[in-house]
Amino acid sequence: MGEATRLLLAGAGVLLLAVILAPASCQSLVLQLTSPSGGTVYRTDPVTIAGTLTYGGTGIGGQMVTLTILNPHGSLFLQRLVSTDPSGQFSLTITVPSNAQTGNYSVSAFYLSARDDSWFLVADTSLNITPTSWTIGDYGYIETGDPVPDKVFYLHNSGASGRTATITYPSFLSFGSNASTGFNVDIPAGQTVRLIVDDVNTSTPGDFAGDIVVNSSGEALYVRVTMRVRDTLSPQISVQPSSWSTTTTKRSNASQSFQIRNSGTALATIDVQGFT
Questions:
Q1: Who is most buried in 59, 80, 85, 120, counting CB within 10 A?
Q2: Per-residue CA distances from 237 to 122, 147, 244, 265, 266 (Å)
Q3: How many CA atoms lie within 13 A of 28 on its CB side?
Q4: In 97-179, where does DSSP find H-type helix?
Q5: Residue 114's CATH number
Q6: Would the pTM of this model clear 0.90, i.e. be above it?
Q7: Cα separation of 141 and 92, whole Å?
Q8: Which domain holds residue 136?
């Protein structure tokens, strides 16, 4: 009985050893990355690298998986060891540096002979503002003292994390009660914030220009603003050529092109009359 028991245990020992070693060479060993699955992230955004390690469809816990990320130039950006949980899952979350190179990043996971690959794209900034320029006044001019209707700018954050931006602007503009030197605004992930210019100083004649600047995490967006203020506005119309003469018959036609130019400071409506 004792010898039979020893043989039975020996057999069980061999069987157990086979189960432990099988993942090193068996085709049923599967390493799969579930995240990232491509797509775009932005500087300062979080990126999660996650996946599963299974053998014969069953998760393998307590194993060390090697994760590597290569930057757009193929150089090593990050390498980490992560442990699988009892169900064979693993996960690592990193934050894209504010000075990270833009472009495609290659992600690879390794365990023994098993491997899986993925990628993600790092873009320059998750913020954008519209419109990107503003010319104040019809025809680029405005009369001294005339009011300017409120102007709305839309600041959108397409990233996965919230952003804080500092807004600075030319002295002839006003954003409500915000300080003339600038103000801060929070833009939640996936949200749009409205920036409203509610007053423009048109009290002094002259040509004015400047930028509304949005600064966030070392990145900057610019909105060019121009304004030409005049005491009075009036059109100045010229037509070239100023005269035209031709001879036609019933069976012939004549045509002439005219260039109409407004070199003044106000819009003009032109009525064109002729003969047929």
A1: 120
A2: 53, 26, 18, 11, 10
A3: 10
A4: none
A5: 2.60.40.1930
A6: no
A7: 57
A8: 127-230
CB-CB contact of 174 with 182 (8 Å): no
Amino acid present at 44? T
The token duo for 207 is 């040509």
List C-alpha distances in Å: 54 to 27, 59, 61, 149, 258: 11, 4, 9, 64, 79
- Give the end of a domain, one of 69, 96, 123: 123
Q: What confidence score (pLDDT) does residue 275 get?
A: 55
Residues contacting residue 87 through CB under 8 Å, at least 6 positions apart: 52, 59, 61
Cβ distance 238 to 261 under 8 Å? Answer: yes
pLDDT, block means (10 residues), the chain with 276 residues: 35 35 58 92 90 94 97 96 97 92 95 95 87 89 94 91 91 83 89 94 94 88 94 70 66 69 60 63
Q: What is the largest CA-CA distance in the chain?
A: 132
Count of C-beta atoms within a 10 Å radius of residue 57: 8
- Domain-embedded: residue 3: no
The pLDDT value given to residue 246: 67
Q: Write a three-state SS string for 222-252.
A: EEEEEEEEECCCCCCEEEECCCCCCCCCCCC
Which amino acid is located at 269 in the chain?
A: T
Cβ neighbours of residue 80 closer than 8 Å, sequence gap 6 or more: 66, 67, 92
